[in-house]
Amino acid sequence: LNFARFLRRERVQIVHNYLLRANVVGAVAARLARVPVVLCSKRGCHERRGWELAGAKLGNWLADRVTVNADAVRDFVHDNERCALQKMTMIPSGVDTDRFRPLSEDDYKTRLGLDPGRPVVGIVTRMRTRKGVEEFLRAMAMVCERQPSVQTVIVGEVDLDEDLQRFVAESHLGGRLHMLGRRSDMPEVHSAFDIFVLSSHDEGMSNAILEAMAMEKPVVATNVGGTGEVVRHGQSGLLVPARDPVPLAAAIADLLATPARAAQMGKLGRRIVQDRFSARAMVRQMEDLYVTLLRRRGVATADVVALTAEAAPVTDGENA
């Protein structure tokens, strides 16, 4: 009720919620406050059940529009939450291609405590079962058995349990695994990678993949959710089945063995992100949606007209 009073007092015209709890609480408060436009967001393909599913459905019902960031997410929400397709709008995720771009210096491996003369395979993730950290480690153990010079890097909030610690110590990963924890310098971290890996069991549209591709890094990823809408198999990266370390290891070894091909994949990956997944493109599409919905509610104020008329063309820094 306090949030609803705040929305009413500030005369908020748009409430756009993100994540399950906000989708419910924010939508209810916005409706109580009679906010003209209410939106919910969906970013993943993990199945909801019980009270979570009921909450998701309530948020969808209260919203004027449900935004999704991939076709796969739209189809999943339609099937799992019974949300009408016509109520959803697909706006792809976007990354800042000015910040995430190839860097000119070449000593980033040294800065991270890595050997600059040896290849680096990296992952950016969290310690959740569906992120596939175990499959990644098992795949890299296979890769390192054939190519002992390869360095394995994990970035993010990841704590290995006793079984995985024992596996690492007893496998060919021993002494070759670098756990970097949370980082705020991701462009520099990506610059140290030779190959970026995503091993998730499910995804919506991975920002980590978009950032890696914007940095011209070839990608090996599990073909889940919207990943196949970003990575072109055999062109900007390689897609493999989820939950199976064997094809994951084979794809990583393939790119390590063909560095020229991997470099070309990386260059195409950046072009794909610039063309379809830049932050500017995402913001412009979101603004257009807001204006359209406000006008349908009869809130076509002078500010809304100005927003449409004066918005700058969508460009990226190096193309401007």
Word description of this protein:
This protein has 320 residues and is of the alpha/beta class. Helices cover 45% and strands 13% of the residues. It contains 13 helices and ten strands. The strands form two sheets. It has a six-stranded parallel sheet, with helices on both faces. A four-stranded parallel sheet has the order 1-2-3-4, with helices on both faces. Helix 9 links the parallel strand 8 and strand 9 (219-222). The longest helix has 18 residues, at 259-276. The radius of gyration is 22 Å and the shape is elongated. The N and C termini lie far apart (46 Å).
Strand portion, in percent? 5-15%
The gyration radius over C-alpha positions equals 22 Å
Structural class: alpha/beta
Residue windows where pLDDT falls under 50 for at least 5 positions:
308-320
Distance between the termini: 46 Å
Averaged pLDDT: 91
Q: Helices and strands, in N-to-C order?
A: HEHEHEHEHEHEHEHEHEEHHHH
Give the neighbour order of strands across the main sheet.
7-6-5-8-9-10
Can you tell me the overall shape? elongated
The count of helical stretches stands at 13
* Share of residues in helices: 40-55%
Tell how many strands the DSSP assignment holds. 10
Main sheet makeup:
6 strands, parallel
Task: Please outline what is shown here.
This protein has helices spanning 2-9, 20-32, 50-62, 71-81, 108-111, 133-146, 162-170, 186-192, 207-214, 245-257, 259-276, 279-296, 302-310, and strands spanning 14-16, 37-42, 65-68, 88-90, 120-124, 151-155, 177-181, 195-198, 219-222, 237-240. It has 320 residues and is α/β, with parallel strands linked by helices.
